[in-house]
C-alpha cells in the first residue's frame, strides 16, 4: 500500500511541474500537464521513467513487456472542477518504435465505494492512430464522462501495455477539463 501512496504523492507533485515552452498549460481548463522531469527521486520504482526516449527534457514514461502500466494520474472527480465537468481532453506525445508497440492511452472512472471497480473506460488504441514509427506523434481524445459519474469516484489516466511486445513511450501529457 505504501508504494501506491508514494506514487500518488509523486504524481500530485509532478502534476504541478512547470509546463514545457511548447505547451499551453496556462490555458483555461488545463487540469494538469506533466513532462515527467520532476518525478526522478520521488518514485519508489523509477524503472517506469526512462531516458531512452524523451520528447522534451530527459525523461518520459514507458510500458514494455516488464511494465504493464505506466504511472497513473489519479484524482477524485470532485477535484476536477467546481461543477461536474462534461469530460476531459487528454493530449500526449507518444513514440512507437514499430508495429509491435500496441499500447493504449487509457482512462477510467472507478468507484472507491465498490472496491475501485471501473464504472467507465475509454482511451486511444495507439496502433490505430499512429501511422509512422520511430518519431513522436501527438495523440488526443475528448472523453465524455458518463452522466452517472459522481464526485466521489476517481478518474485515472495511464499508459497500458495491452500486449505490446515493444516498448511504448509517452511524454508531455496534458489533461484539460471540458465544461
TrEMBL record:
Entry-linked PROSITE patterns: PROKAR_LIPOPROTEIN (PS51257)
Record keywords, A-Z: Signal
InterPro entries: Galactose-bd-like_sf (IPR008979)
Signal peptide: 1-24
Gene3D superfamilies in UniProt: Galactose-binding domain-like
Key word Signal present: yes
Entry annotated with the keyword ATP-binding: no
Protein's UniProt name: CBM-cenC domain-containing protein
Amino acid at each position: 500500500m505504501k508504494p501506491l501512496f508514494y506514487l500518488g504523492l509523486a504524481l500530485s507533485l509532478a502534476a504541478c511541474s512547470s509546463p514545457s515552452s511548447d505547451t499551453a498549460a496556462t490555458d483555461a481548463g488545463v487540469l494538469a500537464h506533466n513532462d515527467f522531469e520532476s518525478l526522478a527521486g520521488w518514485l519508489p520504482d523509477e524503472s517506469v521513467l526512462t531516458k531512452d526516449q524523451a520528447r522534451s527534457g530527459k525523461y518520459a514514461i514507458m510500458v514494455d513487456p516488464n511494465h504493464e502500466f505506466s504511472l497513473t494520474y489519479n484524482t477524485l472527480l470532485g477535484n476536477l472542477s467546481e461543477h461536474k465537468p462534461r469530460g476531459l481532453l487528454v493530449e500526449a506525445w507518444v513514440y512507437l518504435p514499430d508495429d509491435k508497440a500496441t499500447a493504449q492511452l487509457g482512462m477510467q472512472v472507478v468507484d472507491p465505494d465498490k472496491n475501485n471497480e471501473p464504472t467507465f473506460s475509454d482511451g486511444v488504441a495507439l496502433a490505430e492512430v499512429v501511422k509512422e514509427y520511430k518519431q513522436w506523434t501527438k495523440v488526443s481524445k475528448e472523453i465524455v464522462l458518463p452522466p452517472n459519474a459522481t464526485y466521489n469516484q476517481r478518474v485515472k489516466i495511464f499508459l497500458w501495455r495491452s500486449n505490446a511486445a515493444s516498448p511504448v513511450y509517452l511524454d508531455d501529457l496534458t489533461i484539460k477539463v471540458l465544461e
